């Protein structure tokens, strides 16, 4: 089964997930990239992605256009919703963006019906946003029916195909990973599989139900969160007993079935958020998960843990903690991205500041004004100025930092006889700092 020449896709939400999806579809079929933010549409129309994930060439493909006008959605016959699904301050699912997007699509379905009375092929509504099992059919579907005044099954069909976009990853792109697809019935499943086959060159996996696909997505990130939590906890233990976490993990990794995970700060809009969606559903039915939330507690504490260790090491060197100067290199939630939302580096900086440490921040991917808006002190490229620090903290292993030789980090220190600190959170500089030049620490 293949897509029809009359296929018109509308991708609702043009963030890290929706924009690459719209671009891939836009290479083959008529595609509308829709976002409620007019400024986002203006920048994309100019050929500029402020997230830095796609090029100007990608944004100029012939079958792709952008709009912030909801009326333009009515032209589509395949709607793909790819909006954020965050949590609130109490870590409860915040479905506001998803509900709003569903209302927009529902209204578009109604407008489409009024203008396409003779078309008997029901349009598709597919959700990609990460949710708990049951959300698509229990929350989104009733909104679609209410706004469209239509019934699913006859007037439109729904499905779920979870996103697998990994920001900053140029290897595992949309066309190179298997796409999970699901639909309300067999015919819908095959239509959705055919649609995604246009962009998912690695193939599609047909899940038996929408709830199965929803659950599969959410546990992908929970599994990663738990595995990182395990090595983070092991790292804290190994430091207590004088062992190198890196050495232990490398030795254990020689066994064929040992999984390679490394300690670090877990931030962003997926891994730290998704577990709360499943635990919300679990608690709704009276099941109280233990392991999932334990992993979250460990990973949520790591920014503070690194800051605490930094302060302890400053004390060991005889440095006065209050007004000690520390340089934090990297503030985004992971290497290679510009996004600072939900970055655990913020916890690190705030904890250091609470001890009286004077913290300066540099990130080559983030404008100084964005750092200042958070209430932090931004500094120009420290490798090009004469500032010196009691502690240099490599918080995010951007390639720009990895390109610097170890001596350049030593040159940033107030003292190069082993009395100033290099805190290398992910061990990116292991073996590159000359012995005796700095007190070196990593997770």
* Mean pLDDT across every amino acid position: 94
> CATH homologous superfamily of the largest domain - what is it?
NAD(P)-binding Rossmann-like Domain
Q: How many individual helices?
A: 14
Into which percent range does the helicity of residues fall?
A: 25-40%
Count of extended strands: 14
Uncertain runs:
none
> Which outline best applies?
elongated
Strands of the widest sheet, in order across it, are 3-2-1-4-5-6-7-8
What is the radius of gyration?
Answer: 24 Å
Strand content: 5-15%
Overview of this protein structure:
With 443 residues, this protein is α/β, with parallel strands linked by helices. It has 3 domains: 8-217, NAD(P)-binding Rossmann-like Domain (Rossmann fold, 3-Layer(aba) Sandwich); 218-296, N-(1-d-carboxylethyl)-l-norvaline Dehydrogenase, domain 2; 301-441, Rossmann fold. 37% of the residues lie in helices and 13% in strands. It is built from 14 helices and 14 strands. The chain has helices at residues 18-26, 38-45, 96-115, 135-148, 186-197, 210-240, 245-252, 274-284, 291-300, 302-316, 345-354, 368-373, 399-402, 406-410; strands at 8-12, 30-34, 64-67, 78-81, 124-127, 157-160, 179-183, 204-206, 325-329, 358-362, 377-378, 391-394, 421-424, 439-441. An 8-stranded mixed β-sheet has the order 3-2-1-4-5-6-7-8, with helices on both faces. Helix 5 links the parallel strand 7 and strand 8 (204-206). Helix 3 (96-115) packs across helix 4, helix 6 (210-240) packs across helix 8 and helix 10 crosses helix 11 (345-354). The longest helix is centred in the middle third of the chain and has 31 residues, at 210-240. It starts with 7 loop residues before the first strand and ends with a strand.
């Amino acid at each position: 089964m293949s897509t029809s020449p009359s296929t018109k896709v509308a991708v609702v939400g043009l963030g890290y997930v929706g924009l690459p999806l719209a671009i891939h579809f836009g290479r083959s079929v008529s595609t509308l990239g829709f976002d409620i933010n007019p400024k986002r549409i203006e920048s994309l129309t100019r050929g500029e992605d402020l997230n830095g994930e796609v090029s100007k060439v990608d944004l100029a493909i012939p079958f792709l256009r952008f709009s912030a006008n909801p009326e333009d959605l009515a032209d589509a016959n395949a709607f793909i919703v790819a909006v954020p699904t965050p949590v609130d301050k109490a870590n409860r699912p915040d479905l506001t963006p998803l509900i709003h997007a569903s209302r927009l699509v529902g209204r578009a379905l109604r407008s489409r019906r009024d203008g396409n009375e003779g078309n008997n092929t029901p349009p598709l509504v597919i959700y990609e946003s990460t949710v708990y099992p049951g959300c698509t059919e229990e929350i989104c579907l009733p909104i679609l029916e209410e706004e469209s005044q239509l019934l699913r099954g006859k007037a439109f069909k729904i499905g779920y195909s979870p996103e697998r976009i990994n920001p900053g990853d140029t290897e595992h792109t949309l066309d190179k990973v298997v796409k999970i697809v699901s639909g309300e019935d067999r015919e819908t499943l095959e239509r959705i599989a055919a649609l995604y086959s246009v962009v998912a060159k690695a193939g599609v996996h047909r899940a038996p139900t929408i709830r199965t696909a929803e659950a599969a997505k959410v546990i992908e990130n929970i599994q990663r969160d738990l595995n990182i939590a395990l090595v983070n906890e092991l790292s804290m233990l190994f430091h207590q007993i004088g062992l190198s976490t890196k050495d232990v993990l490398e030795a254990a990794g020689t066994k064929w079935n040992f999984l390679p995970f490394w300690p670090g700060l877990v931030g962003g809009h997926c891994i730290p958020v998704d577990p709360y969606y499943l635990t919300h559903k679990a608690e709704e039915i009276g099941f109280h998960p233990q392991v999932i939330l334990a992993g979250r507690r460990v990973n949520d504490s790591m920014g503070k843990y690194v800051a605490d260790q930094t302060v302890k090491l400053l004390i060991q060197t005889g440095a006065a903690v209050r007004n000690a100067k520390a340089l934090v290199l990297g503030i985004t939630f992971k290497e290679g991205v510009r996004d600072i939302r939900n970055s655990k580096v913020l916890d690190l900086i705030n904890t250091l500041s609470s001890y009286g440490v004077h913290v300066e921040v540099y990130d080559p991917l983030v404008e100084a004004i964005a750092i200042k808006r958070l209430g932090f002190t931004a500094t120009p490229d420290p490798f090009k100025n004469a500032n010196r620090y009691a502690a240099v903290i490599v918080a995010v292993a951007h390639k720009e930092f990895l390109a610097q030789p170890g001596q350049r980090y030593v040159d940033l220190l107030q003292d190069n006889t082993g009395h100033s600190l290099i805190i290398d959170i992910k061990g990116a500089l292991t073996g590159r700092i000359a012995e005796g030049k700095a007190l070196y620490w990593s997770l």
